[in-house]
Amino acid sequence: MINYPIEQIRADFPILGETVRNKPLVYLDNAASCQKPQAVIDSIVHTYSREYANIHRGVHTLSVKATDRFETAREKVRGFVNAASTKEIIFVRGATEAINLVAQSYGKSQLKAGDEIVISAMEHHANIVPWQMLCQQIGTVLKVAPMNRKGELIFEEFEQLLGENTKLVAIAHMSNALGTINPVERIVAAAHAKNIPVLLDGAQAIPHMPVDVRALDCDFYVFSGHKLYGPSGTGVLYGKQALLEAMPPYQGGGDMIRMVTFEKTQYAGLPQKFEAGTPAIAEIIGLGAAIDYVTAVGMDTIAAYEAELLDYATEQAEQIKGMNLIGQAAEKGGILSFTLDRIHPHDIGTMLDSLGIAVRAGHHCAMPVMDFYGVPATARASFAMYNTRQEIDVLMQGIKSLIEVFG
Amino acid sequence: MFEDLRDLYQEVIFDHNRNPRNFRIMENANRRVDGFNPLCGDKLTLFLKIDDHVISDASFQGSGCAISTASVSLMTEIVKGKTEQEAETLFTQFHEMTTGKTEEVNLEAIGKLAVLAGVREYPARVKCATLAWHTLDAALKNQQEAVSTE
User: Fold this and answer.
1) Contacts A–B by Cβ distance under 8 A
2) Is some CB atom of chain A closer than 8 A to the CB atom of B32?
3) Can you give the residue ranges of the Aminotransferase class V domain (chain A) (predicted)?
4) What is the pLDDT of residue B143?
5) CATH code for the structural domain at A6-30+298-406
6) A158, A250, B114, B129: which sits with the fewest CB atoms below 10 Å from its CB?
7) Is A350 in the B-facing interface, judged by CB distances under 8 Å?
8) What whole-number distance in Å separates Cα of residue A345 and Cα of residue A361?
9) Is A34 a catalytic residue?
10) What gap in Å lies between CA A33 and CA A28, rounded to an integer?
11) H or E element at residue A33
12) ipTM
């Protein structure tokens, strides 16, 4: 076991002390959303109690202060993903909005009928539907790179899909339904060899591993703040500056303009061009606090700790007769998607809940993945930096008991 | 270990989940409607044979959780021999029981279905129990399109 301050970390997340149905909470629904450390909660309280006003507007003290905090958060995000400039960091509501922004702004302005967009078979609906909408609007074509039974991208077939009509690759860094970590460096290299830009959906990857957008050399990287222990309603679109410069605004309104007359509007420069209207100010400042928090622990350290948790959980799961793991990629993050023989995932979810254990039961916004495995749904336990082996023991004991009850 | 769930998962429900009644395709059905719960992926096809306003036979196919399987299994048992009007009344009573609209459930009228009353304490599971009945309602109204709980 690595040296990891688990007790201290757990103490930092007040909700972990809660009881659910009179049992200590075992929160294993982190792939849906993570809990928040006190530092993030305090940050939001501090902003609203001491330093809140609208940003980029007033000359008054509070507005200047709030603007400064907000832009400091942008710098923290820049540093966290190692972007070249804060101009490349666009704040949005979440990864979903970021992908929609790229589809509607980049897609509509740079792609045309007959152009192809390549995604993978393991995408979340958020990385499928925005592209389908674009296809309906302008006649682009969606191509899907297949995966094998283990839930791994079949790289050769992905590569074969990259043709002269391919104008964009959009692929998950880590699958939310299976836990698969895709070989993103190879994906980017293969696409770039044919001058195809790549968007990486980092919604699942961002809390689990260090991400360096310049080392990855991806063209767009998107993630949600709430999965990185930050507030809901926050998200980030990273884009290479040259690409963002060439893209038209996504939404019009205040904050994204330089000058407006009734005849013509001159847009603001980056990143404001893509940030129409008042953003989630306190929440984005809170995201900065979340980044400080995970950075202090260290993303490498978190990744190593979670890898141990996943190994332990997988070992335990493999010993339970009737428990089937869905998604067994060699490269995998802390997600255990499973089915139990003759027990529907919804029943698993309710029964585990009665033991205080929160897991997700359903299609995980990845219905094509469910179809691939021929199941209507799976149950999913997903791990975060604050989970423990003891919690995995509670989960496995619960699973054994409910198998018994269902008989 | 699951003491808290006794009201929800009663033995009758386990029994119907293990051995669903009327689980078959009905070749001579004159009503056939699909029901779907997109939230959890539960799917069922309900078959009815209605002769002279009386449900002479009821059966189903599909897959779902224990609550939804038990609900549709129990439903096919109880509606057999009932008139369309009686079945509609049962639908209303069942709906009120599971959504908690009436405090007092007429247990006599609803019979065995009372074992599903526990879902009212689990808002996330109410649709599991009511899918079968919404599908029945559509079948009685002779609707052709699939029923969705959304």
Assistant:
1) 63
2) no
3) 26-395
4) 86
5) 3.90.1150.10
6) B114
7) yes
8) 5
9) no
10) 10
11) none
12) 0.88
